[in-house]
Design a protein that fits this description.
Layout: E1 3-7, H1 15-24, E2 29-32, H2 36-41, E3 46-51, H3 55-60, E4 66-69, H4 76-79, H5 81-84, E5 89-91, H6 98-113, H7 116-124, E6 143-147, H8 151-162, E7 166-170, E8 183-185, H9 190-193, E9 199-202, H10 216-221, E10 227-230, H11 239-247, E11 253-256, E12 276-278, H12 289-306, H13 316-321
């Protein structure tokens, strides 16, 4: 009997979720486990894998036809090119992150303009210090350049518009601007747009084209008073160039949730920079994560059963080059 393997913790799927999976896919054995021995024993029968990646299945399960990952990014394929070369389909959980990651990006931007990052340090030192009023900023009427206008970027744009910001977008495929975005440009316009942007937020996928897209040239084109926020992937930025830019005042600061190497090494200069906010790659975290991811899988499962095109289909070869 073919198996649908769900690699999630016990709280990752409700009894109602499992009942719906059985209803959609009669004739399949539904197994939900993270036990390695159980997973290994199912290797030859697994047709569908859902949840977090299981490397041994992705590189060798002979009957695997589809993997529904529980994350939006697919850069794991760059670490496992042998999986990218195999014939199974991969779909992402794109759409699960917009709310929490957008709020995380704005937490960083608001912290910078209202100097909350400095206030936290003063609180730890029991120092009563208030910045001069003219050194404080506002988001209102500032220009936000949103690099990457997928579901996350579109949500950030909506919030930016609600704050009264002018929002510009960069997207590989040109289209009508989504709500909150004044205009969309192609990646070739990045250098033209950086000098007029007060905030640059990165949320594109990591691919061969986007790797290192923010380097010395781009940082040098930004305003001295501008802030860079990265909630995408660490390798979008040349980290050595960023450190230099922050030290020498090319830009005002950086909010970073992702890094070239994770965990961020303890000897990284970024830790000690007063104009940097660091979070440990948790912008996508939410108590509602599994609740939001499951409907994406269920919808795709219905499509799979019906022989229809799947949502969020990943270009495996492009992702492997990332």
């Amino acid at each position: 009997m073919p198996v649908i393997l769900i690699n999630l913790p016990p709280h990752g799927a409700t009894d109602a979720d499992l009942q719906e999976i059985r209803r959609i896919m009669p004739g399949y054995e539904i197994r939900m486990t993270q036990e390695r021995d159980e997973i290994a024993a199912l290797r030859d029968e697994v047709e569908v894998l859902a949840g977090w990646p299981v490397t041994e299945l992705l590189v060798s399960a002979p009957n695997l036809r589809w993997y529904q990952q529980w994350s939006a990014g697919s850069d794991w394929l760059a670490r496992h090119p042998e999986a990218a070369a195999r014939p199974f389909l991969v779909t992402s959980a794109s759409g699960v992150h917009p709310i929490q990651i957008a709020e995380h990006a704005f937490a960083m931007m608001l912290a910078f303009v209202r100097k909350q990052h400095e206030a936290v340090r003063h609180q730890a030192a029991r120092e009563w210090k208030a910045p001069a009023g003219e050194t404080l900023g506002e988001l209102y009427e500032r220009t936000l350049l949103m690099v990457g206008l997928g579901a996350i970027g579109e949500r950030i744009a909506v919030l930016g518009s609600a704050f009264g910001m002018r929002v510009l977008g960069i997207r590989r495929t040109r289209s009508q601007p989504p709500p909150g975005v004044e205009a969309i440009y192609g990646p070739e316009r990045l250098l033209d747009l950086l000098p007029e942007s007060d905030f640059v937020v990165l949320a594109p996928p990591l691919t061969g084209e986007t790797r290192g897209m923010i380097g010395e040239r781009e940082l040098g084109a930004m305003k001295p008073g501008a802030f860079l926020v990265n909630v995408g992937r660490g390798k979008l930025i040349d980290e050595a160039a960023l450190i230099r830019a922050l030290r020498e005042g090319w830009i005002a600061g950086a909010g970073l949730d992702v890094f070239e190497t994770e965990p961020l090494p303890t000897d990284s200069p970024l830790w000690d920079m007063a104009n940097v906010i660091i979070t440990a790659h948790y912008a996508g975290g939410s108590p509602r994560y599994y609740e939001r991811a499951m409907p994406i899988f269920l919808d795709n499962l219905r499509r799979y059963r019906a022989g229809e095109a799947l949502r969020n289909l990943v270009d495996k070869q492009a992702a492997a080059l990332g």
